[in-house]
Write a structure and sequence with these properties.
Blueprint lengths: L9 E6 L6 H5 L3 E11 L22 H6 L2 E6 L2 E2 L18 E2 L3 H8 L3 E3 L9 H14 L3 E3 L6 E5 L2 E9 L10 H12 L4 E7 L16 E2 L2 E2 L3 H10 L4 E5 L7 E4 L2 E4 L4 E4 L10 E10 L4 E13 L2 E4 L4 H14 L3 E4 L4
Length: 342
């Protein structure tokens, strides 16, 4: 189903190619994707800091949007399950482990998410056993996932074959630090589908990491990739849409070779954290693509986590304003912005 516009919260990026025509929509030749950044429900280790059962309505303010899209996506930055011990040392400052009970799989499913990325740096907080249990729970809830091991998500939308794949930093042949391997895989996947969506967990973190730079980024001494190199290389090798997450703050967007890039979707649900400044800003991307993968309409719904873990409509449109500013400063020749209320 289609969702009517929420004029109080929508800001629109009007691409140079224009929005989809009513004829295109009526002919079902438009693919709609809704995407958010990091989703985390707190942790049950070493202390239990997860929301009680009666307060798990994290997505109540946005589920209509998520369910209206053909495909909805998030970066799931937690382990699901209740078993096993941590696979890394916790120092309480720069090293954390995230895990929540398996019933949160139902929370994600009922919110309307169709695919999640578990290609990130927290999926193995409880080792391979924790990762495998997460995959089992996602399968049980009919949520597809993209993983560090190369598992992909596949959809058939009105005859259109869509594939999602995901990559992260760290060791391994599929690491973003081995970009030649990543680009070769993307090239092969692009031959298997009509539209290819690539997810990258990349970039430095925090308030000082909001600007996109064409250089390798580091965080706590770890190589987090060159996001421009990764995004452009993905598109050069056949990707149609690039979704990035990991910096925990919003970043600019870009249209490159007629394909859309979101350099960071920031945080969206982060229960139990003391979120400040841009870390509490929660953009929700709505993008419409032609069946050839070209963007025809892009909207950002502005949400904010005034209570961590519970995004609510932001009538100040902060997410839009931040992304618009960063984009104008970095890629102003590509995209025209306007506010529906202006």
């Amino acid at each position: 189903m289609r969702l009517g516009l929420f004029s109080c919260v929508i800001m629109v990026f009007c691409l140079f190619c224009g929005c989809a025509t009513e004829k295109q929509r009526s002919d079902n030749r438009i693919l709609s994707i809704a995407a958010v950044g990091d989703v985390n429900f707190g942790a049950d280790f070493p202390d239990c800091k997860i929301p009680p059962e009666e307060k798990r309505d994290h997505f109540k303010n946005c589920e209509k949007i998520l369910k209206a899209a053909d495909i909805s996506f998030c970066n799931l930055e937690t382990v699901l399950g209740e078993k096993k011990s941590p696979a890394k040392k916790i120092d309480g400052r720069h090293s954390f482990v995230f895990r929540c009970p398996g019933e949160f799989g139902k929370v994600i499913s009922e919110a309307g998410f169709d695919v999640v990325s578990i290609a990130n740096n927290h999926i193995r907080d409880f080792g391979k056993d924790g990762e495998n249990e997460t995959k089992r729970i996602l399968d049980e809830n009919k949520i597809q996932f993209v993983s560090r091991e190369g598992e992909i998500a596949q959809f058939n939308i009105r005859g259109l074959k869509v594939i999602f794949s995901g990559y992260s930093f760290g060791p391994g042949k599929r690491s973003i630090t081995n970009s030649d391997n990543v680009f070769a895989e993307i090239r092969n996947l692009s031959q298997m589908c009509d539209v290819l969506v690539v997810s990258f967990h990349a970039g430095s973190e925090g308030e000082n990491a909001m600007y996109v730079r064409n250089q390798t980024e580091y965080f706590l001494g770890e190589n987090r990739g060159n996001v421009v190199h990764l995004a452009h290389g993905a598109i050069d090798n056949g990707a149609d849409l690039v979704l990035m997450h990991g910096p925990h703050v919003p970043r600019a967007v870009e249209v490159y070779r007629d394909r859309f890039i979101a350099y960071s979707l920031g945080n969206f649900v982060n229960y139990g954290w003391s979120l400040k400044k841009s870390a509490k800003i929660a953009p929700l991307l709505w993008i419409e693509l032609t069946f050839s993968g070209r963007p025809v309409c892009v909207k950002f719904y502005s949400f904010v986590q005034n209570r961590s873990g519970y995004p609510e409509f932001d009538t100040n449109h902060t997410a839009y304003k931040i992304i618009a500013k960063l984009t104008r400063e970095g890629f102003d020749e590509k995209i025209k912005f306007f506010n529906l209320e202006e």
